[in-house]
Amino acid sequence: MRARDFLLLVLICLIWASNNVLSKIIVDDWAVPPIFYAALRFSVVALVMLPWLLPMPRPAWRIILIGLLMGGGNFALLFIGLQTTSPSSAAIILQLGVPFTILLSVLMLGERIHWRRGVGIGLTLLGVLFVVWRPEGLTLSLGLWFVAAAAFAGSAGAVLMKRVQDVSPFRFQAWVGLVSVISLPVASLLFEEGQWASALAVGWPLVAAVLFTSLIVSVGAHSAYYHLIRNYEANLLAPLTLITPLATIALGVLITNDAFDFRMGVGAALAIGGVLIVALRRKPATELLVDREQR
After folding, report:
1. Residue with the larger pLDDT of the pair 211 and 116
2. Whole-angstrom Cα distance, residue 271 to residue 290?
3. Which of 36, 143, 245, 250 has the highest Cβ tally under 10 A?
4. Coil, strand or helix: which one is 133?
């Protein structure tokens, strides 16, 4: 990999990591309702990606389901979870997305799990167990349940994307944005209150944050990563994207004062090590999807 492209990948991972911490600040410190925040983010994405909307990928039901899973199902659930959990813990729990993707690929795409993948899945699950372990037993807080659900939704959407042929990443983003901007405001009206009051209370910092997460993260960083995918093998890129959870943990400790003890360190090492084993395996049908579980 050329040095310029490596630095670009590092920048992308740092943007993804900073987005995780910023989202925590938005939904927790600023008390912006998480579904409403997700709706604002995808409204901007849908507007920017509008030129790539047509023609609609077929079948229509599949692209709509992908939009629901990748938008409300993934990001909204993650933002709900971040209200009550730290970015560091969320970054580790999100590694469940990799075994989720592989297991769903077995069920939906007919893939087979070889011993090396099995070891990677086992290590990832063991790492997550270390994170949720307490002296009195295993405890998974409500926030971490939402994060785990977000990982599952993102994995299901990513596997479904493999069933859609000849659709550009920009068209996928356009439809995820459109489906999200239709569904998320409805969900916010049903389950949240005081949305605009909280937004107005924060003011311009929220506007800047939404523009950053939608334009810099969703449109900019994701598009730059798709550019790298066209030029390098996925089994080279996927391990390097593990910079994202590591940077999220570091930024969480520095910015949001996340507690990070020996137990979480062991859990992070095991979970990320398991993901690395999966990512380094050559020619899996899901290797292009592994990167989605790091963001």
Report:
1. 211
2. 14
3. 245
4. strand
